[in-house]
Amino acid sequence: MNYFLTFVVGLIIGWIALKILIYYKVQKILGNIADAPLPQKKIVNINFVKMEHAILAYNRDTQQFLAQGNTRGEITALLQKRFPDTNFMANKQNLEEVGLK
Question: Tens-digit pLDDT profile for the chain (101 aa)?
């Protein structure tokens, strides 16, 4: 009976110690995640120009050519492929002018 009681007390103490250890490890990991900087995506304003054969996308600030396509989905896919860490903002009025709305 003495061995059984020692086993049960050891099991309970071990279980509590394991819970405390896991709690502090999780808190440490969550603290590291909270302190980590979030990745920042670059934001580029774009302007569209409609030509006879395609729609061209330009950087609104620098007038640099970015992509060309016939549909909004095609242009979006090309921009995401060429600039994966960049978000693009377009003017609603400009989208309606070129027929991409």
Answer: 788 889 889 999 999 999 999 999 999 988 888 777 777 788 999 999 998 889 999 999 999 999 999 888 899 999 999 998 899 999 899 888 888 77
CA dihedral sign, ordered 15, 20, 21, 27: positive
Domain count, the chain: 2
Same domain as 22, residue 48: no
Per DSSP, helices labelled H in the chain are: 2-35, 72-82, 92-98
Spatial separation of the C-alpha atoms in residues 96 and 89, rounded to whole Å: 14
Distance of CA 97 to the CA centre of its chain: 30
